[in-house]
Amino acid sequence: MPDWLLYTGGRRRHDGIDRLPPPPPWRAFDGGPLLPPPSGGSGNTHQATTYRPSDDAVQQVNAALYLRRPLLVTGPPGTGKSTLAYAVAHELGLGPVLHWPITSRTTLRDGLYQYDPLTRLYAARDGGAPASDEDIGRFIRLGPLGTALLPYARPRVLLVDEIDKSDIDLPNDLLTVFEKGEYEIPELARRADPSADVMTADGPGGRVTVTAGTVRCNAFPLVVMTSNGEREFPPAFLRRCVTVELRQPADEAELSAIVREHLGDLADRSDDLVRRFFERSASGTLATDQLLNAVYLCRHADADDREALADRIMRRLTGPMDDD
Ligand SMILES: Nc1ncnc2c1ncn2[C@@H]1O[C@H](COP(=O)(O)OP(=O)(O)OP(=O)(O)O)[C@@H](O)[C@H]1O
Ligand SMILES: [Mg+2]
User: Fold this and answer.
1) Is residue 3 part of a domain?
2) Is 280 found in the same domain as 173?
3) Domain termination residue (choose one: 245, 279, 295)
4) How confident is the prediction for the chain on average, in pLDDT?
5) Has residue 283 got a pLDDT over 60?
6) Cβ atoms of residues 162 and 97 within 8 Å
7) Ligand 1 first shell, C-beta below 6 A
8) What is the mean pLDDT of residues 203-227?
9) Mean pLDDT of 298-319
10) Crossing angle of helices 271-281 and 306-313, rounded to 10°
């Protein structure tokens, strides 16, 4: 394994992130005061510890870490685009993945923070402190993007999941934030005292101090943006990303290794299903987890039902729909 690779895809946790060199000068950020790394695992432990990335994916993850650039991960359904984020967070001990699922209604502001003026109003009405000095931070919750850009000493992992489902403006809006590595919270910035302890996307209890109404990152997060290719991205967006395309496993040996990683001994005698999956995927899209489901189910089903059952589970997602 070449020495420069911090993330190796080896599924074993290590402190390789400590070897991450300073950023290129054009991607250096100076937010502070520094926050300690968040505690807790990446979330999704089984997926994170069973993931077998391609060499290309390993290399591009490292490129994104070194260059402090977002990683755009494309590929067909079920090729492990989302799981990659959890696998990196687990191996490098980067804490819980900040998950931001994108829909056509998602705005930049949703990812940055939410301010809840109504609850604030009710709190004041019900005998809370006067509006000028009450704790406004209780009504501001940073979103996954907003939390990832806090001045952590180590990069957080932000999964911007299915960015191709977004409204047309979101990729460009994101670009601006990723270029600057900072954002403002106007509701705080315009106050006489623009500092507050706000909530984060890390769940209850996670509160951090925002000063001068602005959040600026220190270690740029590892941003993993996934796309099923439902949309083309503008060149200005692409040139600021590191990109990687994930593919279906290249051969039966690779597929078998993935099945064994997930199912251990339950994967014994699954060669026929792997072969069948591989044959069927030649004429249409099949996702790896369909094979995992089929192998698991067939271990519990009667031998006679095995083939028919597997075919029902391994239906092609595109291409001919007949189950031959
Ligand atoms: N290379 C791999 N090694 C181990 N498991 C894998 C691999 N690729 C996919 N899987 C498994 O397949 C399942 C689907 O992965 P995941 O949800 O990350 O795919 P995806 O590309 O994000 O799919 P979608 O486009 O539908 O969101 C997961 O259970 C994952 O663990
Ligand atoms: Mg996904």
Assistant:
1) no
2) no
3) 245
4) 91
5) yes
6) no
7) 47, 50-52, 75, 77-83, 226, 228, 258, 261, 288-289
8) 94
9) 86
10) 40
Q: Of 237, 252, 205, whose CA–CA distance to 40 is shortest?
A: 205
Distances, alpha carbon 149 to alpha carbons 199, 215, 303, in Å: 14, 7, 53
Nearest CA residue ID for atom 27, ligand 1: 77
> Is residue 139, in this structure, part of any structural domain at all?
yes
Q: Are residues 183 and 289 in the same domain?
A: no
* Tens of pLDDT, residues 241-270: 999 999 999 899 999 999 999 999 999 989
Q: Are residues 178 and 263 in the same domain?
A: no
Peptide bond into 33 cis (omega under 30): yes
Count of other CB atoms within 10 angstroms of residue 221 = 24
> Residue 194 belongs to a domain with what CATH number?
3.40.50.300
Alpha-carbon distance of 270 to 159, in angstroms, equals 33
Run of H or E including 99: strand 98-101
> What's the pLDDT at 319?
74
Please indicate, yes or no, if residue 5 is contained in any of the structural domains. Answer: no
Token digits of residue 160: 């911007």
If asked whether residues 211 and 141 sit together in one domain, one would say: yes
* Ligand 1 atom with minimal separation from the 162 CA: 27
Per the CB < 8 A criterion, the answer to whether 48 and 10 are in contact is: no
Question: Across residues 43-49, what is the average pLDDT?
Answer: 93
Residue nearest to atom 16 of ligand 1 (CA): 80
Are 40 and 182 members of one domain?
yes
Helix %, strand %, coil % of the chain (to 5): 40, 15, 45
Distance 226 CA to ligand 2 centre (A): 7
Which residues constitute the domain of residue 98? 16-245
Counting ligands in written order, the one closest to the CA of 289 is: 1
pLDDT given for residue 247 in this prediction: 94
Q: Which atom of ligand 1 is nearest to the CA of 73?
A: 21
Which uninterrupted H or E stretch holds 225? strand 222-227
Q: Provide mean pLDDT across the span 104-127.
A: 83
CA distance 324 to 321: 9
